[in-house]
Structures are given as C-alpha cells and as structure tokens.
C-alpha cells in the first residue's frame, strides 16, 4: 500500500494535471486533491479551474420538484460560493441552475474575467445581482437567463451597455401555451409570474446589443414590431430561436429576417 501511494505521489506535475483535467468537478472536489501533497499542489493549476459546469447534473429526463425548493437552492449557493472563494481569479465560465443573488453577488466581486454565465431556472436571481454582473464582468460573451422571471429588461440595458463583447443571449421562457409539463414541478405562483414585457426586452436588445450573433427567446411574447427592431439592430445575427413565440406569424418572421443576411 505504501509503495502504491509513493508511485502515485511521484507522478510528474504535467501528468497529474492531465489526470485531474479528466475528472468531473464533483470528483475533483470530493477527494482527488487530497490524495497527497503533490496532488494538492497540482490542483492549484489555473487551467483546471477556468470552467465551473454543473449543467450535466441537471440533464435528467424529467425535472425534479425539489430543485425549486429553498433547501436545494441553499446547497447550490454554498457550492458556488465555495468554488468562487477558492478559484475565483481563474473562472471564465459558470454554468449552473437554481442559485440565488446570494452567490451571484460574490461572482460580481471576484470573477472579473468571466466570459460565460448560464444561470437557468433561478427564481431568486433578481436585477440586483445581474446589474452588478454587468459592471463587474465586462468581458461577458454569453449570458443565459432562461426561466429567471425576476430579471427584467432593466438588467438587459446594463448588460448591453457594459458588456460590449456579448455575442450570445438566451432568454427563454417556460411553455405558457401548454404549462402542463411544469405543473407539480415548478411552483404555481412562479409559473404565473411569466414576464409580459417582450416588447420592452426586444427594444433593449435592438438598441444595446448590436453585436449579438445568437439569440434564443423561446415562448417570448414579443410582437412583429419587436422582432423587426431586433433584426434591424443586430445585423450580425446568425442564429435566432423563436420557438413558441405565438404572437408571430410565418410572414412576420420572413419579413423581419429578410435583411439579416447571416441568419
């Protein structure tokens, strides 16, 4: 046993980093860093901590009602806070769900190099933290705030003004045409809080996000006027997802996108 541990401890730093890079974030934090001193030292390598991605853990066939509880949110917040406190200066990507302003406020203070922020399905993320993200993370290139109903167009204004490199925006809403898939999973009061300001958000995107290349706004309540403004204001658009946008007709979409040559 001692001989085996010695062999693991004598691996070169390059080899150890290669091994650690192949582990999931969960496996890294559960004990790989504690195998021995050389493993702990290798674990400090910046390249190992540029991405914090917990999306794969939410890719189950059906969503769990417990994900929407305060208890689960608290655990997610604690996990994200722990990660930021340990590796904050290296983080360029954060992909997580069901966090709150509590953890995101630390992101704004500690992660100035952040380029990707994906925080889908966060009922208690508000304009308070997103407005701080806008000023604290100016290098943001991709933002996913899908199903975050406490975030308004006012935050999008600040993101557009301060994050000039933003190329990807995802602002999908839940299926309000057939909410049966969310019943008994997502709290009823949250389902009923679905944002109604599709026109306001479209105007903000058109005015403040001219460099967008990809926009996903599934089940948005924008109108033909809003879509026209987006297409006119975002000439570099290559991908536009309008699935479930019931206020639009095929003709509206064809007319609005006719002048966006890359789409």
TrEMBL record:
InterPro entries named in the record: F-box-like_dom_sf (IPR036047), F-box_dom (IPR001810), Leu-rich_rpt (IPR001611), Leu-rich_rpt_Cys-con_subtyp (IPR006553), LRR_dom_sf (IPR032675)
Pfam families tied to this protein: F-box, LRR_6
Domain F-box: 10-48
Coiled-coil regions listed in the entry: none
Protein's UniProt name: F-box domain-containing protein
